[in-house]
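A quick aside before the break. I want you to see a complete sequence-to-structure record at least once, exactly as it would be stored in a machine-readable document. Don't worry about memorizing anything.
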Amino acid sequence: MTIKDFFQKSFIRPWDIAIILLLILSSFLPLVVFSMNQTQSDNVKNQAILKVDGEVIKVFDLIEDGPTYTYKYEDSDGDYNIIEVSGDRIRMLESNCGDQVCVQRGWISKSGQTPIACLPHNLFITVQASDGSEDGSLIY
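That is the input. The structure line, written in tokens, reads:
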């Protein structure tokens, strides 16, 4: 059976194949758009902001190949959180809260990622871009 016989006996027409190929190629369009957006945002300088009860306590600069260090936040009630910064990422290393969800959250490094939240201590760590590429970003 030749290709010509196949098309004559089936319900597929040449324009159907063109439409199918166009749809397959256009399905990769979001991948291209988001990868271009990601490469542009790789040059962005990010900062992690530590907030307790809505008040900014400390701002950490997230620098690629930067130093690794820890920061201990302790309030007057004796609640404490140990935060680890390693280069361009940050995480909650240790906390004396009961559920430990903030410790299990792991590392964050990019603006827009879900923040680290320790709800028993009302502590949040968010990453924000410092180049003004998003609403509410820090501009220097």
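Two observations worth writing down. Residues 46 and 129 are 5 Å apart (CA to CA). The first helix runs from residue 3 to 9. We'll return to this after the break.
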